[in-house]
Recover the amino acids of this structure.
């Protein structure tokens, strides 16, 4: 079962990213960065491709079942995540609540999303491996990501 915190975090990140995110890597890494640097709501572990959260994967399925999110596998083999109207309503309520509770945290989350939402997935992987190496320990793509780190001068 998906945690409420994971669902809130996913709704928040999607809303701050303009209601949609392309690629699973971008979605996982953006949620990871907002979680690690701001909210600490969801547990991540070292996975085969860097930071991974089973809670987050369950949140995607739960939000889809609740009619708040749609994700598709397009013809190019890319996952795309979209908030539905119901999801946008919930996300806006969450934004309002967070603004009242801790506007500084919300601003920090917004800054992270704005800074990284359009970066290539390779950059996001390189960034997370470089600055959160404990989550890269079990990675099967560590060698490739090391090259990306050098390429992006991280």
């Amino acid at each position: 079962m998906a945690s409420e915190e994971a669902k809130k975090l996913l709704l928040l990140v999607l809303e701050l990213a303009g209601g949609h995110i392309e690629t699973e890597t971008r979605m996982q890494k953006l949620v990871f960065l907002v979680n690690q640097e701001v909210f600490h709501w969801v547990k991540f572990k070292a996975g085969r491709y860097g930071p991974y959260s089973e809670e987050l994967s369950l949140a995607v399925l739960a939000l889809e079942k609740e009619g708040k999110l749609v994700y598709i596998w397009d013809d190019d083999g890319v996952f795309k995540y979209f908030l539905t109207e119901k999801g946008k309503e919930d996300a806006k309520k969450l934004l309002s609540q967070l603004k009242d509770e801790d506007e500084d945290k919300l601003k920090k989350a917004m800054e992270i999303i704005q800074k990284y939402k359009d970066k290539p997935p390779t950059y996001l992987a390189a960034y997370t491996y470089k600055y959160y190496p404990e989550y890269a320990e079990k990675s099967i793509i560590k060698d490739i990501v090391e090259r990306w780190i050098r390429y992006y001068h991280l």
User: Anything to note?
Assistant: DSSP finds seven helices and five strands in the chain. The CA atoms of residues 52 and 74 lie 22 Å apart.
